[in-house]
Amino acid sequence: LPSPCDGTLWSGYSVVTAPNPAENLEIFLGRSVGTGTSSIQNWRLLAITLSAELTENTDWYRVIDDDFAARVNLTGTYASFASLTQSLAAGKWLILPRAQIDCDNISSSAEVAYSASGGGITSETDVLLGRMEGGDANEIFQKALLPRVYDLDGTSFTFTVRLRGDGATGDYQHASSEVIAISLDAFAEYHYTYNAADHELAATSTWEETLGLTAFTPSPAANFALLGAATVDCNFGTGEMQNLRLQIGGTTNPSTADESIKYSGSDITDEQPLFVLGYSNLASSSQDIDFDVWSESSGDDIWRDRTLLAWSLELAGAGGTSFPAYNRRNKFNHILTR
Question: Phi/psi at 146 (nearest 5 deg)?
Answer without folding.
Answer: -60, 130
